[in-house]
Amino acid sequence: MTTRADWHAWAAQQDAPRLTDWLREISEPDWSATVNHPLFDAMAEGRLAGDDFAVYMVQDYGFVDPFTALIGFAIGRAPGMADRVVLGQFMGMLISDENSTFQRTFEAFAVPAAQREAPDYLPETRAFQALLRETGSAGGYAEILAALVVTEWIYLEWALRITRGEGLHPLVGEWIDLHDNPAFQDFVAWLRRRLDEEAEALDDAAFTRMAECFRETVVKERAFHDAVVPR
Ligand SMILES: Cc1ncc(CN)c(N)n1
C-alpha cells in the first residue's frame, strides 16, 4: 500500500496525479475523521467550554514543543538556503504569534502553574510526541516533510471547513486565524510541493519509509483529537 509501485499504479489512473493526494488517500479513513472531527465544530461554533478549550490547548502545547524541534531538524536537513528560509519564517511565526496565543490562553483560562510547567500528558499526546521526536532524530528530509505536510495540511483543512459562530472567544478566533490565513495556506502549498518533489529522488526503501511516516502521523492526529475531546 505504501510502495513506489503502489504510487505509480494509482498515478496511472489519475489525470493530474500528485504524490501528496495519493498519500492523503491511503491515509483514509483517519484523514477525514480528523479533518471532520467534532472537536473543531464545537470549538468554532462556541459550544466548547472555555475550560475544555484550555485542556485541549495544554495538550496541544505538548505537541508544539517537539513539533518546533522537528522544524529545527527540517531546517538542518533541508538541501539548501531556499528551503531553510521558508521553514525558518514559519518557525519565526510559531515561536512568536502562535506561542503567544498559547500563553495568553493559559492566562485567560487560569491554567494552574503546575499544568503549564509539568502537564499531565495523555497517552495519545505522548505517543504523538514520540513520533515527532523519532522522525526528527532519525528521519530524512522527506520523512520530516511528510510529517509536516500532515500536521499542517490537516489543520488547514479543518480551519477552512468549519463555520465560525457569532461571538466566539477572541482566543478561539485567533486559533482559527492561525490556521486559515493566506500565509499559512501558502506554507501548506509549499510543503506539499516540496514533498512531491523530494519523493521523486528517494530510493524505494526511503520512499516506503516516507509514506509510512505520513500514514502514521495521520493515525496519531486522529488519536490525539479523539483523546482531547471532552466526554
Ligand atoms: C495535534 C496538532 N496537529 C497539528 C497542529 C498544527 N500545527 C497542531 N497545533 N496540533
Automatic annotation (TrEMBL):
One matching Pfam family: TENA_THI-4
GO biological process, one term: thiamine diphosphate biosynthetic process
Keywords: Hydrolase, Thiamine biosynthesis
Domain named Thiaminase-2/PQQC: residues: 29-225
Active-site residues annotated for this sequence: E221 (proton donor)
EC number: 3.5.99.2
GO terms under cellular component: cytosol
Tree of life domain: Bacteria
Listed Gene3D superfamilies: Heme oxygenase-like
Known catalytic reactions: thiamine + H2O = 5-(2-hydroxyethyl)-4-methylthiazole + 4-amino-5-hydroxymethyl-2-methylpyrimidine + H(+); 4-amino-5-aminomethyl-2-methylpyrimidine + H2O = 4-amino-5-hydroxymethyl-2-methylpyrimidine + NH4(+)
Top-level class of the enzyme under EC nomenclature: hydrolase
Pathway(s) per entry: Cofactor biosynthesis; thiamine diphosphate biosynthesis
Residues at which substrate binds: D60, E98, E152
Molecular functions (GO terms): thiaminase activity
Annotated function: Catalyzes an amino-pyrimidine hydrolysis reaction at the C5' of the pyrimidine moiety of thiamine compounds, a reaction that is part of a thiamine salvage pathway. Thus, catalyzes the conversion of 4-amino-5-aminomethyl-2-methylpyrimidine to 4-amino-5-hydroxymethyl-2-methylpyrimidine (HMP).
Family per similarity comment: Belongs to the TenA family.
UniProt name for this protein: Aminopyrimidine aminohydrolase
Source organism per UniProt: Halomonas campaniensis
Lineage of the organism: Bacteria, Pseudomonadati, Pseudomonadota, Gammaproteobacteria, Oceanospirillales
